[in-house]
């Protein structure tokens, strides 16, 4: 069993967490000019990086979303931090 | 190619089995090919075979970074079925099943297809309604699906937990009689052997590290065994596909997850069908050697590491014991995982992407073994003709921009 650290609650079992998205996705703007392809890429496109990754996860128990930096091959977690504007 | 038959077996027996030849030639790369396929799993090998057989292309190579069938093709639980919901999916998976039904003969290689039937079992009246809906969809799509009653299911599966306080009492479910299992390695080896006999080069221990793109067209690939020129490239590399597509500047709607499977010690024959419990997500079949082969849902953490994690192991094995309390005494022989490529609508991505001449076949996620003959057929069609076959058209990457998703997770609750 792996432990992840919620920036708000501290270390908890991995089963309390859920992967949400890759971090730093920017919503394309302005909306009327966004092509179908660009919008589809924003909604569904991923890099699925092998190794170093920055991802948004949710701690299901407290409901907070946060950023996790980890290695997708070894699964080692380097760091977790609150989203900008949220203070732990 | 040496033909396999009862007679060759008998003759080899007389000479102490010393005359067998290797099933396929170990090839080294030539400087150029008409078409190159990345990934020596079932889909890549089938693609090469149909390119040579159906389209007459002979200068074809399959490049595999490890050994053929060492990816998900050799790691899966071998369930074959076509009980999907959407007509597009049924057209695809039933095409595969029909090709599977003739494959041992076609390849002259026994893939041990065993159409022992599959039950997707329901445990609540609501699940039973979902099963009715799937059975109806199957009948409308022209495949063999029926609703099985609880009494019938319990008769077929006498060891099921039938105690009054069973948490997941079996109420029946959807039955497909043509579903079953096949030997996964044999599918890879059979296609490799037949492709090799038609002149295809099967090159193992060769990793594709770069794509040579000139003027918006594929011109070749870079590999650990040197550059290879080719103007048509097919990628069928499962969980490694996003990284390869990125070399062509293409982003795919794919997350990679580990999916685990388990094998118990062998026991006497006690289960003559494939069984999936909707209530627990665990599914199993009994191998010809008597082992119980079982698995369940995806691991919850996206990863590229080919190993499973403990919480999913607990969920899957406790699901098994819920179905069959008697298995509590069985020992596990092995546990392993594959890295599967999961698409938001749980359907594969087949079609052209990025530079001209580049085609992909991926996104099979937890269920692409059953699709191997069709996936190979369709990618071969794309590589040979440059255009979609009518069966692959709905699975093009453009479905995400067109909003025409084929959501089998919602439609049929995909499970392997
Ligand atoms: C535990 C488990 C259980 C499953 N159970 C079922 C089931 O019961 N029924 C079912 O239908 N499906 C099942 N699946 C899914 C099924 O196994 C896959 O969808 C299917 O095998 C995919 O085949 P493939 O040929 O596309 O990929 P693979 O067999 O994974 O082949 C891809 C190959 O590409 C190679 N490769 C990757 N990168 C490179 C590179 N850069 N250069 C060269 N080669 C490269 C890899 O080494 C690999 O051999 C299961 C999967 C797992 C992991
Ligand atoms: Zn928390």
From TrEMBL, chain A:
Which lineage do the record's taxonomy fields give for this organism?
Bacteria, Pseudomonadati, Pseudomonadota, Alphaproteobacteria, Rhodobacterales
An annotated Gene Ontology molecular function? sarcosine oxidase activity
Indicate what this protein is called per its UniProt record: Sarcosine oxidase subunit delta
- What is any Pfam family matched here? SoxD
Q: Which InterPro entries match?
A: SoxD (IPR006279), SoxD_sf (IPR038561)
Biological process per Gene Ontology, one example term: tetrahydrofolate metabolic process
UniProtKB/TrEMBL annotation, chain B:
A Pfam family of the record is DAO
Please verify whether the record's keywords include Nucleotide-binding: yes
Keyword Transferase carried by entry: no
Mind telling me which GO cellular component terms the entry cites? cytoplasm
Q: What catalytic activity does the UniProt entry give for this protein?
A: sarcosine + O2 + H2O = formaldehyde + glycine + H2O2; sarcosine + (6S)-5,6,7,8-tetrahydrofolate + O2 = (6R)-5,10-methylene-5,6,7,8-tetrahydrofolate + glycine + H2O2
Cite the entry's keywords alphabetically. Answer: Cytoplasm, FAD, Flavoprotein, FMN, Nucleotide-binding, Oxidoreductase
Q: Where in the cell is it found?
A: Cytoplasm
Q: Which domain of life is it from?
A: Bacteria
* Location of the Rhodanese domain: 36-79
A single BP term in Gene Ontology: tetrahydrofolate metabolic process
GO molecular function annotations of the record: nucleotide binding; sarcosine oxidase activity
Q: Which InterPro entries does the UniProt entry name for this protein?
A: FAD-dep_OxRdtase (IPR006076), FAD/NAD-bd_sf (IPR036188), Rhodanese-like_dom (IPR001763), SoxB (IPR006278)
Enzyme Commission code: 1.5.3.24
Q: What class of enzyme is it?
A: oxidoreductase
The cofactors named for this UniProt entry are:
FMN; FAD
Q: Which family does it belong to?
A: Belongs to the SoxB family.
Which named protein is this?
A: Sarcosine oxidase subunit beta
Species annotation? Sulfitobacter alexandrii
């Amino acid at each position: 069993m792996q432990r992840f650290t919620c920036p708000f609650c501290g270390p908890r079992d991995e089963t309390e967490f859920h992967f949400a998205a890759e971090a730093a996705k920017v919503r394309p703007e302005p909306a009327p000019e966004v092509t179908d392809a660009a919008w589809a890429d924003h909604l569904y496109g991923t890099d699925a990086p092998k190794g170093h990754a920055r991802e948004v996860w949710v701690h299901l128990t407290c409901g907070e979303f946060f950023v996790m930096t980890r290695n997708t091959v070894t699964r080692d977690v380097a760091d977790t931090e609150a989203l900008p504007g949220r203070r732990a | 190619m040496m033909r396999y038959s009862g007679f060759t077996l008998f003759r080899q027996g007389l000479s102490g089995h010393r005359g067998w030849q290797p099933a396929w030639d170990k090839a080294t790369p030539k400087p150029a090919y008409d078409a190159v396929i990345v990934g020596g799993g079932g889909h890549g090998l089938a693609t090469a075979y149909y390119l040579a057989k159906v389209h007459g292309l002979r200068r074809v190579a399959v490049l595999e970074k490890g050994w053929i069938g060492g990816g998900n093709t050799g790691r899966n639980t071998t369930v074959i079925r076509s009980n999907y919901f959407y007509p597009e999916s049924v057209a695809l998976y039933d095409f595969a099943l029909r090709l599977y039904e003739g494959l041992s003969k076609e390849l002259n290689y026994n893939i041990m297809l065993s159409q022992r039937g599959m039950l997707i079992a329901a445990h609540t009246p609501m699940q039973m309604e979902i099963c009715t809906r799937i059975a109806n969809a199957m009948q409308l799509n022209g495949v063999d699906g029926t609703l099985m009653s609880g009494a019938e299911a319990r008769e077929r599966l006498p060891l099921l937990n039938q105690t009054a306080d069973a948490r997941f009492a079996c109420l029946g479910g959807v039955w497909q009689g043509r579903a079953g299992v096949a030997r996964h390695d044999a599918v890879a080896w059979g296609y490799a052997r037949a492709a090799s006999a038609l002149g295809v080069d099967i090159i193992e221990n060769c990793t594709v590290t770069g794509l040579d793109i000139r003027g918006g067209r594929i011109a070749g690939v870079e590999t650990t065994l040197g550059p290879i020129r080719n103007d048509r490239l097919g990628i069928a590399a499962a969980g490694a596909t996003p990284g390869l597509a990125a070399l062509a500047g293409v982003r795919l709607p794919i997350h990679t997850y580990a999916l685990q499977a388990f094998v118990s010690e062998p026991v006497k024959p006690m289960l003559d069908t494939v069984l999936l419990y909707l209530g627990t997500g665990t599914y199993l079949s009994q191998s010809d050697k008597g082992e119980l082969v079982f698995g369940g849902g995806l691991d919850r953490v996206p990863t590229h590491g080919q190993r499973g994690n403990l919480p999913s192991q607990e969920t899957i094995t406790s699901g098994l014991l819920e179905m069959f309390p008697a298995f509590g005494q069985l020992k596990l022989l092995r546990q392993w995982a594959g890295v599967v490529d999961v698409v938001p609508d749980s359907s594969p991505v087949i079609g052209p992407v990025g530079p001209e001449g580049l085609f992909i076949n991926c996104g099979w996620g937890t269920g692409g073994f059953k699709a191997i003959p069709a996936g190979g057929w369709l990618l071969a069609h794309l590589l040979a003709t440059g255009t979609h076959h009518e069966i692959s058209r709905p699975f093009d990457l453009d479905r995400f921009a067109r909003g025409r998703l084929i959501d089998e997770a919602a439609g049929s609750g995909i499970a392997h």
